[in-house]
Design a protein that fits this description.
heterodimer, A: alpha/beta, 2 domains, six-stranded mixed sheet, four-stranded antiparallel sheet, elongated, B: about 250 residues, mainly alpha, 10 helices
Chain lengths: ~300, ~250
Amino acid sequence: MIEVEGLTKRYGATLAVDDLSFSVAPGTVTGFLGPNGAGKSTTMRAILGLVRPTAGTTAVLGQQYRELDRPLRRVGALLETFDAHPGRSGRNHLRVLAVAAGVPTSRVQEVLALVDLNEAGRRRVKGYSLGMRQRLGLAAALLGDPEVLVLDEPANGLDPQGIRWLRDFLRSLAGEGRTILISSHVLAEVAQTVDEVVIIHRGKLIRHAAMAEVEALAAGSTTVRSPDADRLATLLTRERLEARIVGEGRLEVAATPERVGEIAAANGIVLHELSVARATLEEVFLELTGEPGERGA
Amino acid sequence: MTRLFVAELLKLRTVRATWGFVLVAALVAALATAGNIGGQSANDRLDSEYQFRIVLDASFAAVILSLLLGMVLVTSEFRHGTIARTLLATPRRGRLLGVKLVAGAATGLGLMLVTFVVTAAIAVVWLGFLDVPLEPSDIVDAASRAFVGAVLAGVLGAAVGGTVHSQVGALVGSLVWIFVVEPLCWVLLGLLDLNGVAEYLPASSVGGLVDSSGDGLSFAGSVAMSLAWVTLATALAFLRLKRRDIT
């Protein structure tokens, strides 16, 4: 449905995308992840025909974007913030797009209602908050009722309420069986929505995996607190379990809590704490991209 | 293609700047016509080309405004970042440029229509009051030149906008070219006894379409040279637009 094959994009001396290949299967929601500056936006713009690849190809629905007939009816896109003429109303922006896309203008009111901009639609865009602009952008993306959606950082600048609204909204779109490629630099933001993730860094593919696989990477060790930690550590090691003392009376064990609890009970060792120590999704993400210090770059 | 053209017209219709251009065109036409009638003696008003001049003099500003509005048609897309969404709807850039050129022609036509209606309304009433008989053939001749001039200016504006992309750069650069650079070229070429060459410069070619003085290129020559400049600007715009990454 969306195919990227050997995509390379160079801006002068800067290599934005480096021989990137991945595909997004029909009907799946795929998170496109990477730190800021990883090449996500460039890749998405190349998919949409806005950026000319230095090498490689991109295709949507089996064709280059520019070859699609009435593309807005097949592919909807939101590119970071929704750029708009400040003096034009949101409704008129959508009317222009509807006419250009060959979509009935009655659809404008439908999508405005869908993104909860019914009242604001008549106001000029210069009076819109960032969240309202994002909603207008989503309305524009959905105008042609497309089967494919390409959304570049749709949560950018949204407040927590807006992010929750967006998450629910994306879930409902995914529930309709649309193919969605959604970029973000925050894994947790899309974790509840996506089926798969494509992680890139410095323009290169780091990992293309099912979300469940990434979540499995987050599953970690067991934390134990006991007044008899040294003896417990010795017993665990004897059972060929990796246990290390991480503080006074505190152990971290590479095993399930059940197994650790059984060994402690069998040996009459009192436990004050027995809990799962999970890495957060963000920690997994940073580990995969390999450079935690560069997140703000 | 038709729906893209209608979308372009809708874009123009839904921003205030367009109506500002229309208002300025109407005001300048009214002032120029009033000046041309009120400021002339009774004998001058009976001059054989008087009514021809009234129409063309009132049209000059509309030609410049058509040029500028043609530029705004393209450059506002880059200024406000709407070019990405426009290209998502019309990914074939050559087609988009073609639609913009046609829309530029339409804006020229529209601005000149407003100018002509204002000019005609004032002139018919005022000259009728002064008992000056109307010369329909002169008026039609002048009006057709004015409409051709405005249409070509609108297309040229869109092509220049497609080449320059920066709105401020295109508008200011064009005005500086029209009112500073080209007059300087005239002076310099005059010093070299090359006045004839200056007539082929872009502003002189397009301006020649609505020049009532009779100096410079013939109307047909002005049309031919204007088309040549439009072709050159369109080719540059196509190359620029085709190569530009929308980031």
